[in-house]
Amino acid sequence: MKLQELREMDEKELAEKIEELKAELRQVVSEIGKGGMVENPMRKRELRKEIARAYTVLTEKRRQKK
After folding, report:
1. How far apart are alpha carbons 24 and 28 in whole angstroms?
2. Is 58 in contact with 51 (CB distance < 8 Å)?
3. Is residue 17 within 8 Å of residue 9, measured between CB atoms?
4. Measured between alpha carbons, how far is 66 from 5 in angstroms, rounded to an integer?
5. DSSP state letter for 35
6. Distance, first Cα to last Cα, the chain
7. What is the mean pLDDT of the chain?
8. Ordered structural domains, the chain, with CATH
9. Which of 24, 15, 4, 1 has its CA nearest to residue 55?
10. Count of C-beta atoms within a 10 Å radius of residue 47
């Protein structure tokens, strides 16, 4: 997801997106932990970065409100 798309979301949508990404990350991590084959091993890194981007945008929005 691009940064511009995240910035267009409101706080509620961002929080939902973060939870969605976290759930997907948990699934990928558990698959890796089980020793199973993961379709895209780099997905774990991508998810962590997307979550960090979303948190950054959420923090920016909360600071602008003050």
Report:
1. 6
2. no
3. yes
4. 23
5. T
6. 27
7. 93
8. 3-65 (1.10.287.310)
9. 15
10. 19
